């Protein structure tokens, strides 16, 4: 009990440091909501695919063969090894729900009185089995009472397309999992001649709006339910390409998203290095403890260090779009690497804390990939292996960089590192 209480206090402190009183109050409210009796909440829709009124094929999506091509297979982390093999393209169809309700700030979909989180559609992983918890966290408390009293949604639209995911507010997930859905929307529009309204989370930030504008969508093209609900005569939901460890990974249209965003950027004259070291020095976890030593060693190889979180949105795109060799610890700072046209990535992990996300991203973009597992620093309790600070062996890092340089030279001579499979 004492351990659990200490952990809760630690979590509350972290929320306060990130977002202040407002975030802490909101977090406490959500925590309390989740402990209300199940009977107070509407029924879950456990088979949203089966409940759809129509399935509409709109495009073909590529599969790839995900394989580690480096020289250190004997020490390849288990999550990367488990991710190897055929990686599926997300299903190339959208599902239509007639007369659906879209409810809440992080929208839940209601169909004939039953509800489901739309970001689960097409995802069969243990990551999404906590449906009841998600519903209780995000469906407004007042909605059940309103429906009992016969009070309907606040607004109505004819055709809507859901552009969201469970983690829509996070920078990496927004770009890697949500924006690719716009390709489904545009394929649907071309096929049908319809122009659905985008339905998004209520709490979009500056980078969400900037990215949507650069994708060609102005604020007049999207709406959110706020604290209420929207009745949609024809609601379109694309399968969610969530990547979860231990399951089938799904590729996305990252190349399409990156090309669209970059094509709409104004001309810039940023002077960024083509060799980029991504720093996490101001992060709360997964920091490189001997970073000064690492930066000094990399500088001799032509690298400059950057903190992407301190750049504005367009600067971050420019940084990565001009990069040809990227080194950094796994984390949000690497999220924009997909903007590079032909690069290599050396990803740093604390030992025992590898994860496959950027391994897949590199494969999707055809980048050479290498990893380095580093000695982690075990301080305090209840810290996951992937979140521990660590120390980099600079000699080993330089050795792996040289290996990647050789792979890039080979790749530029015409060999292919990632082979595409037949489209689905």
Note down, in words, how this protein is organized.
- This protein is α/β, with parallel strands linked by helices and 424 residues long.
- The protein has 3 domains: 1-33; 42-63 and 90-247, no CATH class; 265-412, Rossmann fold (3-Layer(aba) Sandwich), CATH 3.40.50.
- It is 34% helix and 20% strand.
- It contains 13 helices and 18 strands.
- The protein has helices at 2-33, 48-51, 78-83, 131-138, 141-148, 171-178, 181-192, 206-214, 254-263, 291-299, 313-321, 357-365, 394-412, and strands spanning 43-44, 54-57, 64-66, 85-89, 93-103, 108-111, 114-116, 155-162, 197-199, 222-223, 229-237, 250-251, 275-278, 304-306, 325-329, 344-350, 368-376, 390-391.
- Strands 1, 2, 5, 6, 7, 8, 9, 10 and 11 form a 9-stranded mixed β-sheet that branches.
- The protein is globular, with a radius of gyration of 22 Å.
- Residues 415-424 have low confidence and may be disordered.
Q: What average pLDDT do the residues reach?
A: 85
Number of domains: 3
| Residue windows where pLDDT falls under 50 for at least 5 positions | 415-424
Strand content: 15-25%
Instruction: Determine the structural class based on helices, strands and strand pairing.
Output: alpha/beta
Shape annotation:
globular
Number of helical regions: 13
Radius of gyration: 22 Å
Q: Which bin fits the share of residues in helices?
A: 25-40%
Largest sheet: 9 strands, mixed
State the distance separating the first and last CA atoms: 50 Å
β-strand number: 18
């Amino acid at each position: 009990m004492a351990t659990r209480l200490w952990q809760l206090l630690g979590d509350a402190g972290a929320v306060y440091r990130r977002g202040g009183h407002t975030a802490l109050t909101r977090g406490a409210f959500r925590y309390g909501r989740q402990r209300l009796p199940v009977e107070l909440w509407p029924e879950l829709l456990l088979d949203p695919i089966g409940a759809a009124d129509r399935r509409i094929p709109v495009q073909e999506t590529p599969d790839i063969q995900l394989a580690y091509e480096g020289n250190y297979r004997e020490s390849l982390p288990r999550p990367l090894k488990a991710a190897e093999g055929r990686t599926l393209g997300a299903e190339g169809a959208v599902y239509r729900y007639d007369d659906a309700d879209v409810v809440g700030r992080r929208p839940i979909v209601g169909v004939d009185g039953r509800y489901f989180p739309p970001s689960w559609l097409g995802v069969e992983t243990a990551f999404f089995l906590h449906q009841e918890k998600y519903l209780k966290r995000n469906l407004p408390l007042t909605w059940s009472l309103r429906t009992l009293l016969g009070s309907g949604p606040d607004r109505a639209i004819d055709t809507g397309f859901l552009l969201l995911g469970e983690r829509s507010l996070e920078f990496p997930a927004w770009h890697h999992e949500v924006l690719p859905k716009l390709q489904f929307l545009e394929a649907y529009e071309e096929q049908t001649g319809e122009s659905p309204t985008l339905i998004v989370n209520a709490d979009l930030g500056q980078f969400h709006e900037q990215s949507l504008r650069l994708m060609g969508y102005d604020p007049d093209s999207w709406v959110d339910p706020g604290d209420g609900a929207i009745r949609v005569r024809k609601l379109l939901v694309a399968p969610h390409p969530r990547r979860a460890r231990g399951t089938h990974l799904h590729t996305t249209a990252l190349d399409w998203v990156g090309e669209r965003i970059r094509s709409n950027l104004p001309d810039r004259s940023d002077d960024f290095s083509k060799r980029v070291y991504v720093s996490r020095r101001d992060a709360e976890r997964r920091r490189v403890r001997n970073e000064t030593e690492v930066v000094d060693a990399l500088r001799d190889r032509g690298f400059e260090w950057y903190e992407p979180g301190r750049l504005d949105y367009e600067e971050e795109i420019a940084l990565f779009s001009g990069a040809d060799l990227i080194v950094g610890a796994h984390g949000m700072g690497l999220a924009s690497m997909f903007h590079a046209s032909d690069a290599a990535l050396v990803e740093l992990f604390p030992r025992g804390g590898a994860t496959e996300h950027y391994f897949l991203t590199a494969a999707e973009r055809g980048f050479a990939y290498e990893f380095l597992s580093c000695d982690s620093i075990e301080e305090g309790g209840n810290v996951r292996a992937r979140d521990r600070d660590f120390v980099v062996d600079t000699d080993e890092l330089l050795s792996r960089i040289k290996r990647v340089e050789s792979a890039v030279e080979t790749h530029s001579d015409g060999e292919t590192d990632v082979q595409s499979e037949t489209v689905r």
